[in-house]
Write the structure tokens for this entry.
Amino acid sequence: MSKLRTGRRRYYDIFSHFYDWFIKVHSRNYREETRRFLVDTAQLADKTRPKVLDVCCGTGSVIFSFAERFPDVLPIAYDFSHGMLCKANGKDISHRLIITEGDAAALPFKNDFFDVVCCSHALYELKGPVREEALLEMRRVVKSNGLVLIMEHEVPRKLFIKILFYIRMLIIGSKNSREFLRQGITPFKKIFPDVAISHTPSGKSRLFICRK
């Protein structure tokens, strides 16, 4: 792992102590909406023992939503931050999660393994080449009839909120995160032959639905 990635990992290890509070303040009433929207889109109701991988899972909110909705799911929480995964593990009172630490650009799973691979509000933080490698890895490990679901922020329309949004991008995003978010579906079309885009009811987030 590069020195830059190592530095970012230390940052997130520290940030893990405040992460859930930050998301609560930042997302307010929209947290449950985005998670529910992502889980609904996965369309796992008719699958037996589905396997779900949450890349850049943070403290595990999304993968916990999958585990709560589908009792027989195999939920794997994956992140490069030891601190974030420790927080996720602390929440896992039923010991259902499989917690794995590693780099999004080098997933330690075999080809065509998962029914769903998701990444929620995190891909924009990766540098361009690393982001593309991560998407290629997600495509590799998802089944031919599976889904890769990428949830990202919608760029706000109101000027003041947009300014605050881009300040946040400068602080915690990669150098080209603004460009990535403005490109919309284009970066995903380079990796996946079948890409659709959907929006949460509030319009706060957009979901890229990718198939092999």
Observations:
- Residues 20 and 160 are 24 Å apart (CA to CA).
- The mean pLDDT is 87.
- DSSP finds nine helices and seven strands in the chain.
